Amino acid sequence: MWKTILRRVVIMIPQIVILSLLVFILAKFMPGDPFTGSITPQTDASQLHALKVQAGLYDPWYTQYVHWVVNMFHGDFGTSYQFKEPVMAVIGGRAVNTLWLSLFTVILTYLIAIPLGLLAGRYEDTNLDRGIMFFNYVTYAIPLFVFLVLGLWLFGYVLGWFPSGGSISLSANGFFGNALSRLYHMILPGVLTALLSTTSTVQYLRSEIVDQKHQDMVATARAKGVPERKVFSRHILRNSLLPIAAFMGYSITGLLGGSVFVEQIFVYPGMGQLFLNSISNRDFSVITALVMIYGILALFGTLLSDIIMSIVDPRIRIK
Amino acid sequence: MTNSKETQAVKTPSTMKVIWQEFRHDRVAMFSLVFTIVLILGIFIYAASLNLEKVTNVNIFAQYDKPGQDGFLLGADEGGRDGLKMLVIGARNSIMIGFAVTVISSLFGIIYGMISGFYGGWLDNGMMRIYDFINILPEIMIIIVLVTIVPKYNSWTFIIIMSCFMWLSTARLIRSKALAESKRDYVSASRTSGTSDFKILFREVLPNLSSIIIVDTTLSFAGNIGIETGLSFLGFGLPDSTPSLGTLISYAQDPDVIGSKPWVWLPAAVIILVLTLSISYIGQALRRAGDAQQRRG
After folding, report:
1. Tens of pLDDT, residues B112-146
2. In this predicted complex, what is the ipTM?
3. Does the beta-carbon distance from B276 to A29 stay under 8 Å?
4. All structural domains of chain A with their residue ranges
5. B280 part of contact set with chain A, CB < 8 Å
């Protein structure tokens, strides 16, 4: 058990190194340097040169890379040109918003997907199953951003049930007022994203259950006279639901990719929106930090999934 | 005479024949197929008759004309451009980019997956490590960064950048199938009789993967249209001079336009929905045709 986890963590180290190299190379191709934002017509060219030498911008690339990595481990991603603040301070508040929205979306996704998958598998080949499979086909085919724009238009503008953007309203006050206002702003983006994220879970759960139904142990249970309800809740569900837990990590990766769209469309002040904002303002130190953070989060997502999988399924453990 | 008839009866029908049978028995799939072909042909023919310069010319007097006003069937956008004509040109560009990305990335993915699965061993191991690594990259963000820093940016650079990340699922699928095929008797038999690996791979294994490849390519095509329009929607897809369906929907980011001038962006959203839904449905029907257990025909 621990060996598998250890081995999996060791595999991650070269991945992080390559990721950081890739991000570093991308950053080197971006125009500008840490002083671009502070240059004014009064800036002395020789003074600027001295500053650049001091900051190590003329060092060979590997020295710069090591310097960058060491700083990164100290939580120092440099200064944002746009906000004139340390990058970590800029990202910090946004990260909390993205975290809440993602958490809310993951919970909703499972709340929608698990019952649908269970019903489709339980009542295989009925109209209910066909309906759920049709829903699955639709959620698979529709691009996320089109669905979000249409949802925002219908529920935010035409019907006016939900706010059309932001993460909290200005008039909210008090702990409960704030929490409620936050939740109210998350409902529409959360539900819409969750609906489209259910596809793989529903599909997987359904085929797992259909597979389990034909297992010998299920036939034995039936032959013993175990009631159908119990066969499902005790024998089939246990085996089918566990692997779903392992999807949790992967869904983090998927959600992060989608966060760029969700946050842009719903004007939600999270990391995805900050990323697009920084791109259009050429704020490259923030961009570099965000790509690195997203990459590391995705790495940890897959790590989490693999670990859960090895706990749940003893067959893939390494002896 | 009767003998030849009997051999005919047991002959396995060709892939195309099976697909045709499936579509004949599945009315929705048939409808999607005909509809998609007519829609795409219509878009291309109409777009070919249009002059891009004339269509994208700004006419401030027609700004936000309502549908039907001044002879604009679908109204006009912020620059007073004809909504219908912009829609047709945008749709054509999106379809072409989606198609080009699908061809390039699928070709690469098929070759990558076949080599990896067929040879196995350390080669497979190494290739899968590369796959794993690219798979965890935040692809949307990296594409956006590449789009902004690449010099001399145009449609082709965009296609290449997108293709760099879109071959992954194809490679994975083809690898698993090639792995299974490489253990079959006909491969060993062919190898024993001295056939070159190249010939075994492309003349003998590839035809057995054809139905999977057809399904995967169809589904990727729908997916790639979605990703291209999504990136264009964010403003990091096609260059400004080439309108895409995504560019048209991006007008909805203006709170005034999304609420009170839906004719500017809604038709483009509907076209994307219709295209991706019908192409995916065709893909699903093809998948059923490829799997004897699921066939309806």
Report:
1. 999 999 888 899 989 998 898 888 888 888 999 89
2. 0.84
3. no
4. 87-312
5. yes
Contact A141 B142 (CB under 8 A): no
Q: In the block, which residue shows the tokens 């145009």?
A: B154
Beta-carbon contacts of B280 under 8 Å, excluding residues fewer than 6 positions away, are A137, A140, A141, B218, B219, B222
pLDDT by residue (tens digit) across B239-249?
Answer: 777 888 888 88
* Helices A284-312, B139-149: inter-axial angle, 10-degree rounding: 160
Residue A216, phi then psi, degrees to nearest 5: -60, -40
CA of B236 to nearest chain A CA: how many angstroms apart?
10
The distance of A299 to chain B (nearest Cα, Å) reads: 6
Single out the residue of A268, A266, A269, A270 nearest to residue A148, CA to CA: A266
Number of domains, chain B: 1
Q: In terms of CATH architecture, what is A87-312? A: Orthogonal Bundle (1.10)
| A12 φ/ψ sector (left φ>0, alpha ψ -120 to 50, else beta) | alpha
Q: What is the pTM of this model?
A: 0.84
Residue B216, in any domain of the structure: yes
**Domain around B102:** 19-51+72-295
- Give CA–CA dist B161/B159, Å, rounded: 6
Q: Which of A149, A162, A275, A276 to mutate to test the interface with B (most CBs of B within 10 A)?
A: A149
